[in-house]
Amino acid sequence: MHRRGDAQRIGRNSSLGYHPPRSELQSITQGAHLKHIITVRKLFVQQIRVHKTMAIRTVALLQLLMVIAIANHEAHAIRHHGDGKPALAHVEGFLTDMSSGAHGDGSNDHRVLSVELLHRDHPSSPLYVGASKEDRIARSVRRSREYVGDGGGGARRRRMRRVLDMGDGEYVMSLKIGTPPQRFAAVMSTVESVVWVQCLPCGEVDGQGCYEQRGAMFNPRLSTTFRNISCTSRACPSFGDEVEGPDWNSCGESNQCLYDFDWAGDEAPYGEDTASLGDFVTDSLTLDTNISLGSFAFGCSHEYYDLSGMNGSGNANAGGFVGLGPGALSLFSQLNQTVSHDRFSYCLLAAEISSNQSTSVLFGNVRTLPGVVYTPIVDVETGYDVGLRGITVNGRRLSIPRGAFSGGVAFDARIALSVFGDEAYNFIRNAVRKEMKRYEETSHEGMDLCYNVAEVSNPVLPSAVLHFAKSADYSCSAENLFMYMDEGETILCLAMLSRDTYTDSRFSSYNIIGNVMQQNHQLIFDKGRSRLGFTSTNCASI
């Protein structure tokens, strides 16, 4: 609420340019108001001519409508405010605040929504279990290996149907769904375009049940805004488009839209069978105190089964999954109708502080840092894959055949380790080994190339550069290439895996940049311009 002086000052200096005296307001509200409305309208037309952007035209129209509404229906406001504090001054103050909040320096493109992103080992994470550094790293390595063995992002590129193991996933977002809100931790991925959470009742399809998760499952009966989507709705087949259609009838007994997210049978690398099945629904989604989507579409999973055994690892499991991919049903795409302007960004913290500080995913026209370069997205309709043209290690360009990267490259924060096809990986491994020949090689479970640096105070480590299309170079420091595997920092390993070591040759040319290599880089996923931007920075300082 503005003080009296503030309201008057805003009235005189605001973009409205009109501050009628009390006598004029009285005449307006007593019925002889037409000429005053015309006068106000002329003033707004003048303002619209001055301000060229659509955003300000929209605000000006809203201002005009509200002034007319006040003039016609709020006559009693004069009696309430009195003594040099006309009702219109309060409206002007409110609308000026609204205008500045809507367009700032001249357009509404600067609206940004920040959603907290937590590493699963952060004490505030719903998935936090508390463990030694060795245990945390071991679990992180296991999650990366299982993801690679699972086919990884290659499944998405080939439009295969699959579901993510909820025991893995390095970063989580908090979702509040329903009215009143029910809170869940959801695994975040940039390579998928689906959102789903486990829902009560579970096991209603064929008795398979749901996996154990941290916290309560979503209970639709407790939400007053929960709605099933009917089979005849245009939204129902759109969900099928994301997964090439369900494997079974997409219409339930009550005409509700059903979904079947799975990767099963012969399409799976080792014949595993994992799936999430349930209803396709809408409900209110709240991301912070200011942003709420009243009709957010997501999967309400009533059954989850996993014959690969990965869910039996004892890890804390998330309550669902949130994809930020370019598909119509991702969180990013649904937010795009409100705030995201076809782009989002994040900047992952260095490993040593990610377990005690949080970062954010920013949706909207985010501020780009100096030095950001862009590389084209190969096919923005299916994902954010980009073209890798070569790799340099410590100043030496490697002779990797161009075909080694033909399957594309995805930036996926869901796994820690980066993954390259066998051909490219061998070049990288040999180059790193040459640079590290002064140190003693050793072995460590789950890792391929490791060194014993227990007697070395400050090991000299190589750096690298990834050369993407359009001369966009992605610089990798030693911290992006290596991981210390223990609390005492005596074992140092290359933070990469060979895809062919853990999966079949169908995915041999598909590559993933994991979150270790992404740390201390601002990444900008710009769907609107079909490009991915990046630059190295200290993410803790922005």
Automatic annotation (TrEMBL):
<keyword id="KW-0645">Protease</keyword>
<comment type="similarity">
    <text>Belongs to the peptidase A1 family.</text>
</comment>
<dbReference type="InterPro" id="IPR032799">
    <property type="entry name" value="TAXi_C"/>
</dbReference>
<feature type="region of interest" description="Disordered">
    <location>
        <begin position="1"/>
        <end position="23"/>
    </location>
</feature>
<dbReference type="InterPro" id="IPR034161">
    <property type="entry name" value="Pepsin-like_plant"/>
</dbReference>
<keyword id="KW-0064">Aspartyl protease</keyword>
<dbReference type="InterPro" id="IPR033121">
    <property type="entry name" value="PEPTIDASE_A1"/>
</dbReference>
<dbReference type="GO" id="GO:0004190">
    <property type="term" value="F:aspartic-type endopeptidase activity"/>
</dbReference>
<dbReference type="InterPro" id="IPR051708">
    <property type="entry name" value="Plant_Aspart_Prot_A1"/>
</dbReference>
<dbReference type="GO" id="GO:0005576">
    <property type="term" value="C:extracellular region"/>
</dbReference>
<keyword id="KW-0378">Hydrolase</keyword>
<dbReference type="InterPro" id="IPR021109">
    <property type="entry name" value="Peptidase_aspartic_dom_sf"/>
</dbReference>
<keyword id="KW-0325">Glycoprotein</keyword>
<dbReference type="InterPro" id="IPR032861">
    <property type="entry name" value="TAXi_N"/>
</dbReference>
<protein>
    <recommendedName>
        <fullName>Peptidase A1 domain-containing protein</fullName>
    </recommendedName>
</protein>
<dbReference type="GO" id="GO:0006508">
    <property type="term" value="P:proteolysis"/>
</dbReference>
<dbReference type="Pfam" id="PF14541">
    <property type="entry name" value="TAXi_C"/>
</dbReference>
<dbReference type="Pfam" id="PF14543">
    <property type="entry name" value="TAXi_N"/>
</dbReference>
<feature type="domain" description="Peptidase A1">
    <location>
        <begin position="171"/>
        <end position="535"/>
    </location>
</feature>
